[in-house]
Amino acid sequence: MCGIFGIVGIGRELTSEEIGAVGAGTNLLRHRGPDGGEIATSGRVCFGHRRLSIVDIEGGLQPMWSTDRRGMISYNGEVYNFAELEQEMAASGRQFATRSDTEAVLNAYLLWGSDAVRRLRGMFSFAAYDGVRGEVLLARDRLGKKPLFYTIRNGALAWSSELEPLYQTLGPFKLDMRGLDDYLAWQYVPSPRTIYEGVHSLPPGHLLTVDLNSGQVKEQRYWQLQFSEDRAIGCEEWGERLDGAIRDAVRVRFMSDVPFGAFLSGGIDSSLVVGYMAELMEQPVKTFTIGFNEADFSETAYAEQVAQINRTEHHMEMVEADSLAVLPLLARHYGQPFADSSAIPTYYLSRMASRHVKMVLSGDGGDESFAGYNSYEYVMTELKKPADPQPNRGWFRFLARKFAAQAEQREDALLDRVFALQTVTSRHFSPEERRSLLRPVHHSSIVDFDVDRRRLLDVAGAPIVTRLQHLDLMAYLPFDILTKVDIAAMANSLEVRVPLLDHHVVELAARMPSEHKLKPLANGGFDKKHILKALARKRYSPAIVDRPKMGFGVPVGAWMAGKLRPQVEERLLSSKVLPRLFDITAVNTLWQRHVAHLDQTPKVWNLLFLEEWMRQHEAALP
Description:
The chain is of the alpha+beta class. 42% of the residues lie in helices and 16% in strands.
């Protein structure tokens, strides 16, 4: 796993200052690739690369030229089917000088053009140059496991694995108030927007091409998850197919020339992954767990049971109440506000694992593909109840105007209610709360109804559960979960591979009937991740499989109201930067509610992270 940075001149040659910016930006990505770094220039193109050596340690140096010097690549990722691709390409005359997947991706692009991206199995973001076509290609994997940011300014397009190097070398950029509104609402900034005006995040499953001859820049989607329930087979056979698909997804991710292990939370997903690893590996699996002294947030006992069953080499550490100490580092690495507090334990877990291995497998993705979130059960349960006759009049007046087509009125009304219910489970600050917090001059940036997010429920003919899964797979998963893991792990020079998000597994799950994922029960409840639990029960006891879902939470609320209270109050109420955007009286009201045990943890942490980011990026503020 690596870091990439580069610039291409659109219709002009690069300046010496721009080439220097590539060198500086590449150095700022050293944590993503501590094993080496280089830049390479060819005409209007300059590529930079920092390398974390996992496969072909000696031969996989980057930026990499093809053997015929036709093309070049700077690549961040792992493609697990590269050996099969090489065999196919060798028959077409392409030559290889290494045993690196990097060279396979480069040659695939030179042979098949941008269509090559559809053939890749794995996680990636990369920039590739074809001198014959006169083209540069930027691409990001299907589900967004690897990030890629870009900006176009002064006749050049620049890209980076992380936002901060772009800001430090080509900025400062101006704060995008719409991006800030997204952050306050959802705790992250979704693609293609970022916190900066004119700086974009390439969405998952998309590629961008730059024609060096015409100067045309074109962005397009190359992959879209298709849902289509196949009821020709029963749940048992679906379970057999899923068992084979997950086993294969775990197996191909053993591709490594360095030691590796696994994150183990004690939940179903990571326990399953570790179980498959133990079954397939000859040596004990190295497993890593983070815990808390607060019992309500700690799953260490379950993780230890799973480790004992699989006879792993288990490592565990406890996280103490020092979340504010790591906040400056997190704000710097994430590059824009990011309010998922589980980034704290993810950072410490990655730091611990990196002392022993350079790569781990994780269990991320099971909740989205197999309906494991409590929000699914909440929405489906609430839908059984009569609609509130006077819920939020302004909200529904807007919906009535927005979705008034008679032919679709009934389905739209249902989906509007689904969206409102889902929003309750995922939103931080409502539009009204954002208006109370932000100074009036910024109220025009507040969006009452997120049309793009609502559109993610529009999956033709699909059950409600499937539509909710699609929203999470396309929004919460890439912009929160995968962003959190990538940045926290790469800050510690650790690669994370995600077998449950192998696109073969995800596409298989999309064909399963929804009741195999969220199964209705006779008592009116639901069995979440029903089919995954069936697989897990073959390995683990009901005490591990059937316990209530905990998630990877962190007791930051208790910390802030206790030991960290003086620091939190100083940051929120005496901040020199928050008043530039916020009404501090409203911020104080929020804090007093939290102190009075009216839990406001997500909202307080949202503002704390934002305040730290604002401190570090004052030049971006209005």
